Structure formats: structure tokens, C-alpha cells
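Quick one: structure for this chain?
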Amino acid sequence: MSDDNGATGGGATPDYGGRRRAGRTGAPARPRRGGGGPPRSGGGGDFTRRAPRPTFEATPEPESVKPARELLEGILERMGIAGARVRYYKRTEGEYLEVDGPDLANLIGRHGHTLEALNLIFNNIVNAGVKKDRHYFTIDAEGYRARRADMLKGLALQTLERAVREKRSIALDPMLPSERKVIHLALADNPFVTTESAGVEPERRVVVSPKA
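Got it. Here's what it folds into:
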């Protein structure tokens, strides 16, 4: 079973045969010269910055979210991030607190590592002392993690096809915990494959295996 708040199966469509074929490393094939295409699963920083920013329908902020939003605004202020605005929205993989501002490159960090660390600390504070009904948010900046999540969902479907076609387990490149969770959720309850996380941080990765 997964230990990234994910599932052992998948939620991808059963029509795996029509999906684009993946490369041999468990990540998408490198783009052809002059063409587009997703990067290897272990990187993605440049790709997510260049990709079009996802559009979201406005989500009314529940009253229960207000303390978390105000907490994040206070943390950002203490970090010296001036002029940042935080808004709430929902996606299929969970609830987001989106940070908008004039210059958030330092908040994102290399390949999103700073944002990942902030996300971990923030959720630990929000859930301190809570034993039941713990509430988790994904902190995003300029749509970085949402774009990354969309790319990872595509990678999950490509890996699903390859694992079934080749009838063997496929190990993806090492990922951050939040990124592994996206893969697990994308393939949750899938009738063809199971997923699990293997290895030790920072080399921990998702393994997609065909069901017997």
C-alpha cells in the first residue's frame, strides 16, 4: 500500500490503449527537437513555468478555511513576501490556497522544493493537536503546483498503459511526497494497475504494477 495518502489502485480511464505511449524510463519520452512534450518526472521546473496557467472557477471560501488563510498570510508576511494575496479553490486532488504576487520565484524554489517545505510546515501547524478530521491544504504559487499536478496526471496515464502493455512494474523517477500523492490519486481504483511508494527519501518513487 502507498504511504503518501494515496491508494494502491488508480482512477484513470480503462481505455488505456488509446493513450500516448511512454518512454522506456518510466517517464515520458524526451520531446523531439522543435516539438513540445512533458519532461522527465523527476524534474519539471522549467516545464511547469512555461506551461499555460490552469484556469479555475471561483470557489467561495468556507468559513472554516478563513483561519488557515489568515495563518498563511501571516507566514508570508514574516517571510518578507510583500503584496501577496491568498485565495481558496478546490481541485479534484484537494483544496488549494493559491498565492498571487509580483515576484514569487523565491517562494517556489528550485523544482518547487521551497513550496513543498512551506506546505509541510503549514499543514503541521493547522493540524497540531487534531486527532480526527485533520484538514490538509496544498499551498500553490502562480499556479506552479497545479500545472505540475496536471502534468503528473498525464504521466500516470502513460505509465498505466506501459505497465499493462509490458506486463511488468514500472518505477517512476523520485518525486516529492505531494507529487507521489497525485500519481496515487490519479490511478486510484483503476481495474488494471496498483501503485505503491518504494525507497527512502529523497529517492522515494512511485511504482506502478499491473494487477494479476
